[in-house]
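Example protein as discussed:

>
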Amino acid sequence: MRIALRKMGNSSGVIIPKPFLAEIGAVGVVEMAVEDGRIVIEAEKRAPRTGWAEASRGLALAGDDGLVWPEFGNADDGSLDW
């Protein structure tokens, strides 16, 4: 099958037919690589958020799990009535 390259900003792209994506089980995110001069697209090999729990534990053990922005920066926040 011949498919035209389409200009997308500074890049180029192709429209992948839905049956092709269904055949490889692609949903949402795919893995893409260049192998032996070919562009290879595969269904994502891992489930979303795989490894997040372990990474969070590692951050906590290293003491690197503090809030990045602990408070709102508005000067009048202390005087707000809820």
Q: What stands out?
A: The first helix runs from residue 18 to 24. Strands lie at 6-8, 11-13, 30-35, 38-43.
